[in-house]
Amino acid sequence: MLINKTNQNNSFFKCSPRVVAFYLPQYHPIPENNLWWGPGFTEWVNVVCAKPLFKGHKQPHIPADLGFYDLRLPDTRFAQAELAKEAGIEGFCYWHYWFGNGKRLLERPFNEVVDTGNPDFPFCLAWANHSWFKKRWNPNSIGKDKLLIEQKYLGVKDYEEHFYALLKSFKDKRYLKVNGKLIFMIYAPLDFKDVPLFIETWNKLAIKNGLDGFYFIGGQYAGRYTDQILSLGFDAVYNESLMGIHARMSNIRKLFEIVQTKYLKMPRRYRYSDAMKYFNSKAETEIFKIPGIKPNWDHTPRSKNNGTVFTGSTPELFYKHVRETIDLVKNKPKDNQLIFLKSWNEWGEGNYMEPDLEFGDGYIKALRKAIEDSKNHRN
User: Fold this and answer.
1) The pLDDT of residue 119
2) Which of 306, 113, 330, 338 has its CA nearest to residue 219?
3) Burial class (CB in 10 A: 0-12, 13-18, 19+), 79
């Protein structure tokens, strides 16, 4: 272990899980998406065009209470916050896009939340630091994925501009913190070679502007590279493991999957009841490791036959998954009992909490019940 951050096994802290949900701000048209995908494009286009690709495959998923919303509408953002409160979610973690030289995308919903002060619901930010591509999902297609916009890292001046572009949100009373420090996640920490300088720069600027600094979280580690990420200056790592089940499959099952995907051109599929066993591990009991919870996964609205699907997810199974995950954080200090929910509204990836026509608000009720039961029953 390169950095010795021992777990504080304090039974003093009654279980009080801090569930923070990733929030996709994509559901409104922007000029770039109009150019790349056609006028008026949003994720809803992929969602409604999805089709079942095998027997028992449930597509498309249709929203219920909130409908096919537009995030430019304040009423939609308010209704989302009310539902999240009902679920027991502490706040939203908005995906944030900064490509360098001040270039941002999809920033309008979050900017309006900050500028208007509504909804009165906590938030933090996760920097989705990756280039955007138009994917060629067909493995037999000729040519590589087309680059749409490149993620650039341009040095101290750009890091400073990035900080000041967000300073108003950092000073907002709603901004989520750990021990007084602002939560900020970097999605792909190992893709950012200059990240130690970025962290140093932002912490200095935070202190200069009357803040206590940042609680930096390195994302996408999937149970690996923990030491490497922490050595860069991160305070914690987030486990985004979705496919832990794949590594544990038998060789016969892996061979079947190759035949299924390569020759039959079918999406990979796993039972949710099997996959959820491997979303997290006992390693997430350590104070600097943050587990995640996932209601479901189905990437086929975006990737068609090249996607991955979890089948058989239900609110009852999700409740069980959440209870098991809460057990991983229950002995951490209260501020560190973080759990990231993937996600609030990733309809194109099949991981969302918002009500749909199949289960209504079942996942919202399941999460609320799991949180309440964990507070009332201590092992």
Assistant:
1) 98
2) 338
3) middle
What's the fold here for domain 18-376? Answer: TIM Barrel (3.20.20)
| In 146-296, alpha helices (H) | 156-170, 195-208, 226-231, 244-247, 251-258, 272-275
d(CA 77, CA 96): 17
Amino acid letter, 144: K
Q: Under a CB-based contact definition with an 8 Å cutoff, are residues 235 and 215 in contact? A: yes
| Rounded CA separation 204/297 (Å) | 39
CB 114 within 8 A of CB 169: yes
The tens digit of pLDDT for each residue in 136-195 reads: 665 555 567 899 999 999 999 999 999 999 999 999 999 999 999 999 999 999 999 999
Whole-angstrom distance, CA of residue 349 vs CA of residue 296:
9
Give the Cα separation of 238 and 64 in Å (integer). 31
Q: How far apart are the first and last CA of the chain?
A: 30
Give the DSSP letter of residue 233. Answer: T
Token readout for 359 is 């289960």
Among residues 282, 287, 285, the alpha carbon closest in space to that of 335 is found at 287
Q: Which residues does 40 contact at the CB level (< 8 Å), separation at least 6?
A: 29, 34
Residue 226 to residues 177, 232, 330: CA-CA distances in angstroms? 22, 10, 21
Q: Dihedral through CA 22, CA 205, CA 177, CA 328, nearest 10?
A: 70
Pairwise CA distance, residues 296 & 201, whole Å: 37
Domains in the chain: boundaries: 18-376
Q: Is 18:339 a contact under the CB 8 Å cutoff? A: yes
Residue with tokens 């219920």: 64
Is there a contact between 23 and 92 (Cβ–Cβ < 8 Å)?
yes
Digit-coded pLDDT (tens) for 42-64: 999 999 999 999 999 999 999 99
Q: What is the mean pLDDT of residues 248-260?
A: 67
pTM above 0.85, yes or no: yes
Q: Based on C-alpha coordinates, what's the Rg of the chain?
A: 20
Phi and psi for 169 in degrees, rounded to 5? Answer: -70, -35
The span from the CA of 19 to the CA of 92, in Å, is: 9
* Angular region, 126: left φ>0, alpha ψ -120 to 50, beta rest: beta
- Look at residue 241 in the predicted model and tell me its pLDDT: 86
d(CA 122, CA 305): 38
